[in-house]
Inverse folding.
């Protein structure tokens, strides 16, 4: 890798000094020898060296080229690989040429090792400075620590920074809350009629010291509206008579129960076992991804069936092979277990009959 980089640097230097071909003089022959040294230690050197001579020194004769190649082959390998300092002294490469042509494998002849090290450090500092400048960093010469503005104001460094912090916080609060610190009528909600808005100029000054008792400073938590007691849910799954009466008075059924009754009457002909009813319900609530919708598991459906039984909207079931059916409007002298809605009757009529039955039951219980 180093050999290829050095060969490229030598070609760049020769092209910069002489052009496409080397001159027919001692300097040209010396530079041609330096150009052939890295080629002699590469693969196929016997073929590449004559081609390099033909390219860089077309004026050289065949006998002279053969002698030059033989002389290079007789040179020891360690001498064919000089370090950068030795090569820079042979070719007289200055630091300006090295930086201009980027000859990084050749050391400058006009600088010592210490000077070259200081030069590299200076370049690294300049490179880092440009990188920080591109990122948006400010130079240290214009920083606050170098300027020391607190000396001109006659205050300490900590006081100056504290004042700047307070100013920044106040400016940020003003931008976010434009009316911060003002007492306007639309900013305060009056809870009682005797409360009035007071401007900052009319407010009394605060008392010095902590003479006010804690009980006086704390505000009483007065509720603004009456809280209604939350209804308690019964522990058992069966509804009580009072809940049935309330449901009959309200005259409405939950959406899930209505959907189950609709499936039982329209899709299953108002006669289906628990398994048939459950499969048909889950079929309607299964998406394209074959996942059952939340709230329609076997346990939830069984809970809704028990609720429908408690409400008196369905009858039957409660056994292997027994079918459920919706209850129609109550007829005089007919037991409730024998009342089943005909298949051709619409679900709206069945639901209306069930509501009327619940209303009649609620009136009879109230009497």
């Amino acid at each position: 890798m180093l050999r290829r980089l050095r060969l490229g640097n030598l070609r760049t230097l020769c092209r910069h000094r002489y052009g496409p071909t080397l001159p027919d003089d001692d300097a040209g022959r010396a530079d041609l020898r330096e150009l052939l040294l890295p080629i002699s230690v590469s693969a196929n050197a016997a073929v590449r060296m004559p081609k390099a001579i033909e390219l860089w020194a077309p004026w050289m004769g065949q006998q002279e080229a053969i002698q030059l190649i033989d002389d290079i082959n007789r040179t020891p390998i360690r001498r064919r690989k000089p370090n950068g300092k030795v090569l820079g002294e042979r070719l007289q490469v200055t630091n300006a040429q090295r930086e201009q042509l980027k000859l990084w494998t050749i050391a400058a002849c006009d600088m010592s090792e210490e000077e070259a090290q200081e030069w590299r450090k200076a370049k690294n500092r300049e490179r880092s400075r440009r990188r920080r400048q591109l990122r948006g960093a400010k130079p240290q010469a214009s920083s606050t620590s170098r300027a020391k503005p607190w000396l001109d104001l006659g205050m300490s460094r900590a006081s100056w920074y504290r004042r700047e912090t307070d100013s920044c916080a106040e400016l940020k609060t003003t931008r976010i809350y434009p009316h911060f610190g003002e007492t306007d009528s639309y900013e305060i909600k009056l809870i009682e009629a005797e409360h009035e808005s007071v401007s900052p100029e009319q407010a009394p000054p605060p008392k010095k010291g902590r003479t006010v008792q804690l009980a006086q400073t704390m505000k009483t938590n007065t509720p603004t509206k009456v809280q209604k007691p939350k209804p308690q849910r019964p522990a058992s799954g069966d509804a009580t008579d009072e809940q049935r009466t309330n449901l009959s008075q309200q005259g409405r059924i939950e959406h899930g129960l209505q959907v189950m009754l609709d499936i039982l009457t329209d899709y299953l002909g108002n006669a289906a076992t628990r398994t048939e009813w459950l499969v048909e319900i889950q079929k309607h609530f299964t998406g394209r991804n074959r996942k059952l919708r939340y709230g329609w598991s076997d346990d939830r459906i069984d809970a809704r069936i028990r609720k429908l039984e408690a409400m008196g909207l369905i009858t039957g079931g409660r056994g292997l092979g027994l079918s459920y059916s919706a209850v129609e409007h109550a007829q005089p002298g007919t037991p409730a277990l024998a009342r089943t809605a005909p298949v051709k009757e619409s679900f709206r009529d069945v639901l209306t009959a069930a509501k009327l039955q619940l209303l009649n039951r609620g009136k009879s219980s109230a009497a």
User: Anything to note?
Assistant: The longest strand covers residues 323-326. DSSP finds 17 helices and three strands in the chain. The longest helix spans residues 113-134.
